[in-house]
Each structure stands twice: as C-alpha cells, then as structure tokens.
Amino acid sequence: MSEPQSWVKVGCSNLEDGREALEQALQNLALTDSPRLVVVLAASRYDLSEISVALSGRLPDSRLIGCTTAGEIAAGSALTHSLVLWALGGTGVRVSTGFGRSDDQGLRQAAVEAASCLESLERLQHTVLVLLSDGLGGDQMEVVRGAYDAATIEVPLVGGCAGDYLAMRQTLQLHGTTVMSGAVVAAAISSERPLGVGVSHGWIPASEPMLVTDSRDTQLSSLDDRPALDVYLDFFDPPQEVREDPQAFADFAAIHPIGIRRRDRIEMRHITGFDRDKRSLLMVAEVPQGALAFLTRGDSASVLEAAAESAASAIEGLGGNPAAGLLLFDCVSRRSIFGERHVQEETDLINRCSGGVPMAGFYTYGEIARTKGSGGFHNQTLVTLAIG
Questions:
Q1: Is this structure's pTM higher than 0.70?
Q2: All structural domains of the chain with their residue ranges
C-alpha cells in the first residue's frame, strides 16, 4: 500500500524523565514512515536540548521545531506537564523550517529570518507558515509583521507563543537541535490538498466602541481621551481587591479582555496589568492608536462555542476533503475559565467536531492567525490548523 498523500500522528507522555517520556511518545506515534515535520511541545520540566538531540538521532530525515508550553493537548485531552509530538508526513507534503533570534535586531527581523524558509520550500498547491515565538519577548504583533514581510499576502500565518506554565520567567524555542530563548521558529508547509485555518474566541462586546486616543507599544493609555485604567474600572466596577492588588486584577482581566475592531472581526488583546501612576493598561501586544476598541466579557459557554467554531471553520476550509489531523493553538487564559475540573470539555468538543482525527497543540501566551486583512495576533482565542 502506498503512503497517503498526507498524514498526521500524535504521541505523548507525562513520564517525569525526559528520555523515558520521549520513548513513550515515540511508541505512541507508531511510525511506519519518516515524518516530514515533527513539532515538539514540552512542559518546562523537560530538558529540551536532550530531547531534541535524541529525537534528531531517531528521526534524522525529519525537520524539528518546537517550544515550551503553558499546558499541552494530545490524544483528545488537555494535559499538564507532558511531552507531545505532532508528526506530519506523506507524499503530498513538503516542509522547510527556519529560525531567527531577536537579540538586538528585534522580533520583527527575527520573524523575517524564520519565515525566509519559504524561499527553499518546494511549493505545491496549498501553503501555510507555522510560527512559534517567545511569549515573553515583547510586542508579538512584530512577529506577525515580520512574517508577513517574508510571506506576503499569499501565505496564511498560524501559530502561537511559547509559555512556561505562567512562571513568566523564560520560554524556549526549538529548531533542529538548537534551543533558544527570545527567538521565532517557523515551519513552512506546502500540500497537494487544502489546509484549513479556524479562528474564534467567544468574547462578547460589553461596551460601546471607544476610540484608542493614546497608545504606545504595549501600553494603552487612553480611551475616548480618558485614562484607560479609569475607563476599565468604571465600566466593570470590580471589587476593591481588583482595584488594588495586581494578582487580583490579572485574574479579573483574564476574563474581561479588550477587543480591537478589524474589518472582518474583533481581535482580542489580553491585559497583563496596570500602571497605577499613569492610569494605563499594560497589554501583551499593541492596541493601535486610532483603532476602535471594546471592553468584552465571556463565560464558559461562549468560550466552548468558540472552540467548536474554530475547529469547524478549519475543517470547512478543506473544501470537502477529509481531515488528516489538527494542530491547535489555545490561549492559556481560556483554560483558566474552565478550571481543571472542566477543561476537558473543550478538547472533547473539538474531538467530536473533527471526527476524532489525530490532534495536538498547546496552551499559549498568544495566538497567530492571519489569512486576510490587517492584524493577525490574537489573545484568548483558539486557532486551529487542519491538514487535508
């Protein structure tokens, strides 16, 4: 029997020892052919260098990219402290990979260098660029801009920001056997069959649209010419603890993000904190000055509905072809809404929507999806890549 045009396999393990976890994950993969690409998604407790060297030795013909996470998804389940391998192969698939370090040149140029792997890619009918970036490395819209500089409008962008289980100290990115921080890694995938992208968040505008009248980098200073922090607190009127304690504020903000009006959608921005003296809100990525913004709210029901929409939209993008597998980029803030008792509901729903095809992914510090229009960086959103 000939090899399928495209296939996806997933292996995972939560064994504590990294080499033992890798062996178990490889056994789960049950590979009969060498993958074109393996995406390594690892909890921070694992030695990513050790795993990458061992994996490269076992699969010398496969391209490797990966990162640390804020939680993993595999085998239809939400996982913690695990090692996950997502493998893509088949005769109808081509892959090239690249990376860039931000260092002094910044995230935008790092993304340009990572996305330059498109230049060496054998192009088939459908192409997508998968990006993994340092979730603590600065304004992630710069990653989107840099990737777009290289990919242009022709190639959709998908991906997510590496995490460290909310320790907020350091995230790691992997390319081949090179482990970095402050980097962007990329995999350009080209396929004879369609590739579908789904994006949905489930957050509902709670306010009237407001003009962003002062914003610079990741600091949102004013809305409708009023201090942004005052606008936010006056509208939601949270308890006094939220107004005074940074952690209580962060917990509240996780379920009350800000939405930016784009031409065809509302794009979410996560609020990481506040500057009490400047009365400003601190964001994970820019809120463009001159944009229209909304204060939003959501609940577990709306977030679950968005998960179904993201998966269904990605599969619909396959144009009637069956899905070989899914790669998921799910914001860690969404996981916090469910709590650990109910987080499985989301992955169960995605599993049902996709017909139980192999799927894996990770909980991110931000998501990337650009198929058209402006923007392309998201928070508190589920981005789904479907392989046809």
A1: yes
A2: 7-200+301-387, 204-297
